Amino acid sequence: MTTSKLFIDYFMQYVKTRLQYRSDFFVQMVTDIMFQTVNLVFILVVFNHTTHLSSWSREEVIFIYGYFLVPFSIFAAFFNLWEFNERYIIKGELDRVLTRPVHSLFQVMMETMTPESLSGALTGMAVMGWASWEMDLQFHWYDPLLFLLFALGGAAIYGGLYIMLTSISLFSDSKTDIQPIMYNVGNYGRYPIDIYNKVIQIVLTWLMPFAFVGFYPASFLLHDDRWLTFAMLTPVMGFLWFALGIMVWNLGIKNYRGAGS
Amino acid sequence: MLEKYVELMRLRFLMMLAYRVNYYSGIIIYSLNIGVYYFLWMAIYGDQTSINGTTAVQMATYVAVAWMSRAFYFNNLDREIAQEIRDGTVAVQLIRPYSYLLGKGFQGLGEGIFRLLLFSVPGMIIVSLVFPIHLPSDMSQWGWFAISLFLGFIINTQLNVLTGLMAFFILNNMGMIRAKRVIIDLLSGLVIPITFFPEWAKNILVYLPFQGISYVPSSILAKGISLTEVISFLEVQLIWTVLLWVPIRLLWLSARRRLVVQGG
């Protein structure tokens, strides 16, 4: 109850600051759209030179990409932890957060959220819609429900992983550039996993489970049952990784000593 | 005159040595990048042995060289400059007895040399053992590659400085910095060699500075192009390093006039 009330208050606060810096809002929207088109361009250019990627057609790969955008933008909207190290550790804002009676991670997430990134989910669904129309794809009545569950699971996997990476700053106050690099790697889950060799497949499934954010659930929605078990595991993996992220965070908070001054 | 800058470069090199987490994670991430793009391109090739006059082996070599070069030319100067503008430390930097921007450039170079020596060179040896790639044995080709790679570094650094300086005009330019990174990865030829773009896009891309960052040096090493072509490539790169100096200079002059330190 208090949590949802706090969320609304934070959101109102956010709207106010956004209205203050209107050009920032505009720039964020434009860069989000740019980011999404650049990745689509890659797929389109590549399919100029081949008809199939392994056994996957152009429309199927585009569908997977569209699906990927949905969990990804949910993640991008609420886990905007890029500047955590600079803002909360080096500048010491975490000390302020820790004196308040609400979970520290919740506060940090609320203070850094960018709800306008959710527009990416609309783009993603439009891309999926176009691709399934092209392929004449039929959906079952339960597909939208599973889609929602998969998307939330995928966002949770991403979130858990990024919380863990961000928590590194709580253990050592040295700068790390891991997060931006991870941004690249996070994209690899949106290509059909059977084009990679075993090692990379294992990495993308268990170590950095990005295949759950894109390919596995999308292949299920494309009525390909070869990865059925993995697709169904998506919400479970989401829960596990998110829980793991919060555990590491809590451990880090216990360990946190402040960066001085 | 130059010693000051060399010292800045040396300090950055030593600083990089201190951040081991970055180093180890970088190795994992770059191996994954090369692996993923290798298999992606091999899937694109499928049964075809050659696309657009590029053989599968040349493509694999291109992927490896392009990513290992990225380790050298890549830096976070845009973020650094934006950060310093926003928290006001740029004011302190401005009164120091060296050019702020040139100092930044040399720091980026220190970072690049660190990764080149401790990362790209050993990485390249491992990659050439794991993947079927073909590197030239002709030393002159390596020489041209080195020159071209350095020019690519300058172009990329200039673009980073430009993006960073935008923080003077847009108070929060983090989104722009991220978008720039993605655009450079695409348009520089890192993820798709310029020759693979459709004709109309190619005609635009040859007039943009991005190809000089990744496509030019990587093709010199991976595809074994003729000397006249190499020379014309280097000319294009050289022209861009000079041209990009103009907007930086203009932005810097007008920025210093309107310097508003937020807080502090």
Automatic annotation (TrEMBL), chain A:
Transmembrane annotation, as ranges: 25-47, 62-82, 117-133, 145-165, 199-221, 227-251
Entry-linked PANTHER family: INTEGRAL MEMBRANE TRANSPORT PROTEIN, SLR0610 PROTEIN-RELATED
InterPro entries, per the entry: ABC-2_transporter-like
Any single Pfam family the record assigns to this protein: ABC2_membrane_6
The protein's name in its UniProt record: ABC-2 type transport system permease protein
Keywords (A to Z) from UniProt: Membrane, Transmembrane, Transmembrane helix
Origin: domain of life: Bacteria
From TrEMBL, chain B:
The entry's keywords: Membrane, Transmembrane, Transmembrane helix
InterPro entries to which the protein is assigned, alphabetical: ABC-2_transporter-like
UniProt xrefs under Pfam families: ABC2_membrane_6 (PF06182)
Membrane-crossing residue ranges in chain numbering: 21-44, 56-73, 113-133, 145-170, 182-201, 230-252
Full protein name: ABC-2 type transport system permease protein
Organism name: Marininema halotolerans
